[in-house]
């Protein structure tokens, strides 16, 4: 990576938003917020997904409906709209709505990382949970949650009450997918999976083997629905990915969450802080 353009906030309490050009891939950029990688986009090829966890999100989007059919999508956490661009490219005509509470980030993305204006992608500035509460019941085919304050997911997006709001906006057959950051004993990830299972009938968790064993801090992708998930196809895609991953569901996931109960708003906590040096540039 090289050719940095720093867009520092005018006031110190605002996060620093930074764009870093990828010297090895033309017209590609990394979006950093407070030193944490938030998004990677290739403006020439929106179907290219650099981050392994975003590829897992892409697998879920690919299987949300027959190939090429437009879908409605809600994105909690806009970032650089990597997944929204991917869906617009692979499912033309999809209607997508995103929300982020960082107005400076959104303005930077609008001006420096423009997307195809033919795509029906709209972004709002708001708190993610408050925004979700304002959506109609059964109004989306896919709800993607990738919200981080710095490198941590806010507690309000980890509770049973939040997952009920997520379930409320899903249509029959629709899917909820969330990015989880955790490591070591994976206490937070176990809690998130148990909490989702208290609301959704079908839940799966996808992550690289080293992360699942607690050997390093990393991303785990939670997939949940009221209806059966395409677990075998998700498992196959995870296994064939350049960053091979495992999928836990059914009895395996039950063993993973054994002894862990669902978490409600009153006891919810932010996801853990990544160890120093996790994101080395």
Describe the structure.
The structure is a single chain. This protein is α/β, with parallel strands linked by helices and 281 residues long. It has helices spanning 52-62, 82-90, 103-112, 128-133, 160-169, 187-197, 209-212, 231-240, 250-256, and strands at 2-7, 17-21, 28-33, 36-42, 72-76, 95-100, 120-125, 140-145, 170-182, 202-207, 218-225, 246-249. Strands 7-6-5-8-9-11-10-12 form an 8-stranded mixed beta sheet, sandwiched between helices. A 4-stranded antiparallel beta sheet has the order 1-2-3-4, with helices on one face. The longest helix has 11 residues, at 52-62. The protein is globular.
The CATH class designation is Alpha Beta
State the end-to-end CA separation: 8 Å
For the sheet with most strands, the description reads: 8 strands, mixed
Return the average pLDDT rounded to an integer.
92
CATH fold-level topology: Rossmann fold
**SS element count, helices:** 9
The quaternary organization reads as single chain
């Amino acid at each position: 990576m090289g050719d940095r353009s720093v867009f520092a906030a005018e006031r110190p309490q605002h996060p620093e938003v930074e764009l870093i050009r990828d010297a090895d891939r033309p017209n590609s950029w990394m979006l950093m917020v407070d030193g944490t990688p938030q998004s990677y986009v290739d403006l020439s090829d929106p179907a290219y997904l650099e981050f392994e966890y975003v590829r897992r999100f892409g697998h879920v989007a690919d299987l949300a409906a027959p190939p090429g059919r437009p879908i409605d999508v809600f994105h909690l956490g806009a970032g650089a709209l990597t997944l929204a661009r991917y869906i617009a490219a692979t499912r033309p005509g999809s209607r997508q709505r995103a929300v982020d509470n960082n107005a400076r980030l959104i303005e930077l993305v609008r001006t420096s990382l423009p997307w195809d204006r033919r795509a029906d992608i709209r972004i709002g500035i708001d708190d993610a949970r408050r925004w979700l509460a304002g959506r109609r019941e059964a109004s989306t085919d896919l709800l993607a949650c990738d919200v981080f304050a710095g490198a941590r997911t806010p507690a309000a997006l980890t509770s049973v009450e939040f997952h009920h709001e997520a379930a409320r906006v899903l249509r029959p057959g629709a899917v909820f997918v969330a990015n989880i950051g955790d490591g070591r004993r994976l206490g937070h990830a176990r809690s998130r999976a148990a909490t989702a299972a208290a609301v959704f009938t079908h839940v799966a968790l996808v992550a690289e083997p080293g992360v699942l064993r607690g050997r390093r801090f990393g991303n785990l992708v939670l997939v949940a629905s009221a209806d059966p998930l395409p677990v075998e196809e998700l498992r196959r895609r995870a296994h064939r990915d350049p960053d091979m991953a495992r999928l836990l569901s059914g009895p395996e996931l039950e063993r993973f969450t054994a002894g862990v109960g669902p978490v409600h708003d009153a006891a919810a906590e932010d996801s853990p802080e990544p160890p120093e040096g996790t994101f080395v540039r």
